[in-house]
UniProtKB/TrEMBL annotation, chain A:
NCBIfam families: PRK09331.1 (NF006810), SepCysS (TIGR02539). It catalyses: O-phospho-L-seryl-tRNA(Cys) + hydrogen sulfide + H(+) = L-cysteinyl-tRNA(Cys) + phosphate. Keywords: Protein biosynthesis, Pyridoxal phosphate, Transferase. One of its GO terms (molecular function) is Sep-tRNA:Cys-tRNA synthase activity. Belongs to the SepCysS family. The gene is pscS. This is O-phospho-L-seryl-tRNA:Cys-tRNA synthase. Residues 65-321 form the Aminotransferase class V domain. Homodimer. Interacts with SepRS. The modification N6-(pyridoxal phosphate)lysine is found at residue 216. The keyword Transferase applies. It comes from Methanoculleus methanifontis.
TrEMBL record, chain B:
It comes from Methanoculleus methanifontis. This is Uncharacterized protein.
Length: 392, 60
């Protein structure tokens, strides 16, 4: 069925259990779907934009209150919505990083952190991961020391991913921030895989900046995200424009430079707002999500030869799995080659595993019901058994 | 201007979104349990009422 010329309606979430690693936390809530229907028009949230004419001051719909609520919920002082987590990285890097500055990222950092550093003229330096695929405070301290030796200056910023996108491991962010602060380095916590799906307390972590992704983990339309900070940094990162036209003499009031004036309009911000009560509630049930994740990991590990490359017991719903000695051995003989696994899953109403993947791949079980979790686990085992793999 | 018709359109679309969400919750089999069937029946009944309002306002 088409929803417009040459655009097929998307029914992936209605027809299948979707375990795509990046899509799980961004599935809309029913209220966000309704908000999307009502606020699809471009400038729809601007009907009641009154002086001083900035998005985060709009009271109807209650966007101003939403900003205050977001900051309080993350236990930070101030928050802004942004068009995706990457725009939060960009705003902070653009503010703090000068040309030639070294900036600390990690061996598990998302590429958009590198790009934000590059755009600001900085030079990324990575904290290596350890053998268990963790970024540790000790490794952070060693890297900071090494970078100071190399550049004869202290890095102006450190990025740390609360949960990394490669393994879905939860890192000792508080410990790393403590180390960075000993060198007076402000820290940006990338919460793209935590804010909106698990509890995050910015002050408890000691974060200077918390960035979240609306479309990855806050059940919001893309592109959406948030940047929260403390009073100490808010004046700087949310500085207002001083620009003045030399011909017209125009000035631009309280528009914020890094936010390019106004940020999220229409369906993105209203979708975030509509989902917000739901995500406030769902993070309280993180233990259930982790238990569901474990159920599927246990099912996969019952297939002889399968290994989990993420932390096990699981602490997150995003998991990296190694099936080179199980499903990939089937793929080598199968007429569909590596496509047999995604094909078999699809027959059982499961999608989201990259077609052709039978070696090392990722999936995410966030948001599935108990019944769906059972179906996913049982399906993996059934596919293994039908293809001659041993179940242990 | 028919505010009643406009409200009925939104209400019907919102109710159908509830049905859409039910389809997601029960994917891939869409085997609804008794509670879910009851929820679906009530919602569809409400959709019919909104469609009736639209017929009254726009067609008759």
């Amino acid at each position: 069925m088409k929803c417009a010329i040459d655009i097929e309606s998307r029914d992936v979430e209605e027809m299948y259990i979707n375990i795509d690693p990046i899509q799980a936390g961004g599935r809309l809530t029913v209220d966000a779907m309704k908000a999307a229907i009502a606020y699809g028009d471009g400038y729809s949230v601007c009907d009641n934009c009154l002086s001083p004419f900035r998005l985060d001051y709009i009271k109807k719909p209650p966007i101003a209150q939403f900003h205050a609520d977001l900051a309080a919920w993350l236990n930070m002082d101030t928050a802004r919505v942004v068009p995706g987590a990457r725009r939060g990285f960009q705003a902070v890097a653009s503010t703090y990083v000068e040309k030639g500055d070294p900036v600390i990222v990690t061996a598990l950092a998302h590429y958009t952190e590198f790009v934000a550093v590059e755009e600001a003229g900085g030079i990324p330096r990575e904290i290596p991961k350890d053998a268990k695929n963790h970024i540790t405070p000790d490794a952070a301290a060693e890297k900071i020391e090494a970078v100071i030796r190399e550049f004869s200056k202290t890095p102006p910023l450190l990025f740390i991913d609360h949960v990394d996108y490669q393994f879905g491991n939860v890192h000792d962010v508080a410990g790393i921030i403590k180390v960075a602060h000993q060198y007076d380095i402000p820290v940006l916590v990338n919460g793209a895989y935590s804010v909106g799906i698990m509890p995050v307390d910015g002050k408890a972590l000691g974060a200077d900046f918390v960035v979240g992704s609306g479309h990855k983990s806050m059940a919001a339309p893309a592109p959406s995200g948030l940047l929260a900070t403390t009073n100490e940094h808010a004046q700087r990162v949310f500085r207002t424009t001083q620009a003045k036209g030399d011909v017209t003499g125009r000035t631009f009031g309280i528009k914020e430079v890094e936010m390019m004036g106004c940020t999220l309009m229409g369906v993105t911000v209203v979708g975030m707002m509509a989902s917000f009560p739901h995500i406030q509630e769902r993070v309280k049930h993180w233990d259930t999500e982790v238990a569901h994740s474990q159920t599927v990991v246990d099912a996969l590990l019952s297939i002889e030869g399968t290994k989990v490359l993420s932390d096990n017991p699981r602490q997150h719903t995003l998991t990296r799995i190694d099936t080179r000695e199980s499903f990939d051995t089937v793929a080598q003989q199968h007429k569909k080659r590596g496509y047999f696994l995604s094909s078999e899953l699809k027959k059982r109403g499961i999608t989201g595993v990259i077609p052709g993947s039978t070696r090392v791949w990722k999936y995410n079980t966030f948001g599935l019901t108990e019944k769906q979790i059972r179906h996913v686990g049982e399906s993996f085992v059934e596919i293994a058994r039908e293809n001659g793999l041993n179940i242990v | 201007m028919s505010k009643r018709a406009v409200d009925a359109v939104f209400q019907a679309l919102f109710l159908l979104s509830d049905v859409r969400f039910l389809l997601r919750e029960t994917a891939p089999g869409h085997d609804l349990d008794e509670g879910q069937k009851e929820r679906a029946a009530k919602t569809l009944e409400k959709v019919k009422r909104q469609v009736a309002i639209l017929e009254e306002e726009l067609v008759r």
